[in-house]
Amino acid sequence: xxxxxxxxxxxxxxxxxxxxxxxxxxxxxxxxxxxxxxxxxxxxxxxxxxxxxxxxxxxxxxxxxxxxxxxxxxxxxxxxxxxxxxxxx
Length: 89
Prior knowledge:
The protein has four helices and no strands. Helix 3 (49-68) packs antiparallel against helix 4 (73-85). The protein has helices at 2-7, 13-39, 49-68, 73-85. By secondary structure, the chain is mainly alpha-helical. The protein has one domain (2-85).
């Protein structure tokens, strides 16, 4: 979803918009889930579900770009480990 939207030219604008829509839908689902997690006390009360969802999707999409660029499994695990250090307790 990331690479396709980046590679589309003006002739494939409808494809780019569809990929953007899919990413937006996935982020909205994460926001809803994080809101529920706050209500169930699985996340701290001071966590902003929207910010957390955007952070998580940014890391995931960044990892996708890294993987497509040849990052190793070890490299990707290190990125994930670093991202988890920022995860709210």
